[in-house]
Amino acid sequence: MARATRSQKASASSQSQLRQSQSKRTHRARNDDSQEEDDGDGDGGGQADQDDEMDDADDGDTDIKRKANELVRLALFTEHKRAPLRREDISKKVLGSNSRAYNRVFDCAQEILQKTFGMQLAELQTRAGLDADAAHADEELSQARNATGIKKKAAAVGSKTYILRSVLHPTIIEHAALTDEQILEEEVADAPSDDDDDDDEAYMPRFYGSIISWTSSDQLGATGILYTLLALILVSGRVMSDMELLANLKRLGLPPSGHVTFTSHSTHKTQSVDTYLATLIRQGYLDRVQVGDSKKSGKGAKRGRMTQADEENGATYEWRWGSRAHSEVGEQAVAKFVAEFMVGDAGDDDEDEGGRGRREGAAAKLERMTKGIERAAGGQLTDIK
């Protein structure tokens, strides 16, 4: 009986240990399942967070694109008035409180302008920046001649104001300006008849038959006067006195009492010469600097408006290129325009040996004329800035 009792106790103890082991395994299994469920919930939460981040990124990109489109519209509207677009206007009218997104919005707007309109926003330089560039160019030229000294780099000073400038290749523009017979016929057919009531009788539009519609899109007469003034200032050593400028205008049939005529697309039919010059100053094509009795345009010189009081007080002025002329036109383009005008197009339409000879002679003359313009300007001609 004693042995049987010990056997029963051993059997009961073994069964108890077995139950405890099974209970521990079950508990561990339940913990593993619970951990897997927790891990599954964690993955789901992480995916939801990723989705939320993607949605936020999409919303941010959409907002950047919307603001970039607003900047494009503002730039086109401002350029139509030939007024510079200031960075503070961009921040106020486009960005609002989100000023940190300026670079992203600006880059996106640049991409839209280039792909859609073939244009870009170009920053104008201040007068200090233009003078620094000119001084740097003169210094480099002097050092190249003397082969001594250390070059000093003159950094251009940005004005935080922008204009729209074409990025189309010059070859595309040249082909777009060629006459096409079909376009010419359509322009003539669409021209107003004699019976139409046209208030602009003094101006008869000329049809060019080109993709670029010069007649309806630009004020060719006023633009021609501007380019002539830029050319005269350039070949006068990049600066021209008041008396010289007025004398040249008088030779062109534009005395101070004369008027500049505009087409019917303009808000005004005519402007006096003084008013037109003031407009060119305001638009940034020309700069009128008061030099006083010292005749110096460096330190002490200041920009002045065209006022009768200054003239009566004996103040003297000098005319220079404005920042917009440097960024939109460029000295090299004006020099090329003058050289081609002076040399002409001899031999362009002839395919014989005589025509080729005339073309080669014209090319040599063109090169000599360009070098002469560069010497007259007083230094190396610059491209658009």
TrEMBL record:
Residues 1-21 have a biased composition (Low complexity). SMART domains: MAGE. Gene3D superfamilies: MAGE homology domain, winged helix WH1 motif (1.10.10.1200), MAGE homology domain, winged helix WH2 motif (1.10.10.1210). GO terms for cellular component: nucleus. Pfam families: MAGE. Residues 49-61 have a biased composition (Acidic residues). One of its GO terms (biological process) is DNA repair. Residues 1-62, 292-312, 345-385 are annotated as: Disordered. Residues 354-374 have a biased composition (Basic and acidic residues). Residues 64-124 form the MAGE domain. Transmembrane segments: none annotated. This is MAGE-domain-containing protein. It comes from Lyophyllum shimeji.
